# Entry
Amino acid sequence: MSRYELKNKIGITGLGAGVWNIGPGNDPFGGPTRDPIPMLDRLPMLAEAGMSYYEAHDVEITDEMAPAAAKLARKLGMKCAMYTPSFFAAPVFKDGAMTSNDPAVRKLGMENALKAVDTTVVLGAKTMVFWNGREGFDFVLAKNGRDSFKRLVEGFNKVGHYALKNYGTKVKFAIEPKPNEPRANMYMANVGEVLYLISRLDREVQPIFGVNPETAHSRIAGLDYIWDVELCLEAGKLFHIHLNSQDGQRYDQDLPFGYTEPLKDLALLVVLQDAKYAGPVMFDVKAPRVDDPKNITDIITVSAQNLIWLWDRALKVDRSKIGQFRRENRLTALSGYLAQCLYGS
Ligand code: GLC
Ligand code: MN
# Structure
């Protein structure tokens, strides 16, 4: 099994993807088009597709399954890049976990979160992700927004203190913003909001909280993902990144990285290279409903190949030329230079 590697990257050079990326192909309008693959069987498939890392939710690899998963991953020469509590699938979390109006639901959410911290350690992952899934509202005044914000601060403080007390700085947290879907409006909708929330956490836990920006989520918000990533970098909070693409501002598509906006993707990689980003580079893509079972990992290999091509091209972008175009205020010409780097021979 050969694995994709990012040339000249410092820190983590291998790539990774979520076990949920190779799902059975259901969407809100239709059931699965492929038999579901048992979660642990997905690890060798990801390895076979060139991935060095996998990621999973607590409902996919449960705490009971974790030791077996860790053993299997070791055998495959893989690592867990991140683990994440699923606060969105179970009916009990239909109106959120940390921001639910029901204290019993908030309590259950917290128990799941703390358990997920333990499992993160068992799996040997250094990062636990919180995606805001159901944290939000569909109807105005359904929740008191200021109370919700306080509940998030309280919740993350609790999780952070628990991790520090039990594991020191072994586990870090990356909050993943998204503006909507599944909720009409989601809290922690964008990178700026997440950074603000982190700034309101207890001082001791702030250093272990960062962001997991996802390129498609920025796009769904109508925002530029390069600036979102730059903002994380500026704050010293780019802990993780999810790459994919999105065909316009509509439902969440999780298309292959490099597919919709290759020039922007090239520029994003220039930014990551220049920042000497050492952290994980992971895909969050979704095998489309139309793909046949035997081709289910095409979504991963196409993303990876696109990334490798773009990464190598980004290494060759002449940074002094960018500086010169900026100084001369030739900004259209700068875009043309990037296009030449992308399309030229
Ligand atoms: C869900 C989201 C995805 C997120 C993941 C981990 O699958 O769709 O964007 O990264 O959960 O929390
Ligand atoms: Mn994601």
User: Anything to note?
Assistant: The CA atoms of residues 141 and 288 lie 36 Å apart. The pocket of manganese (II) ion (ligand 2) is lined by residues 176, 214, 242, 284 (CB under 6 Å). The first strand starts at residue 15 and ends at 18.
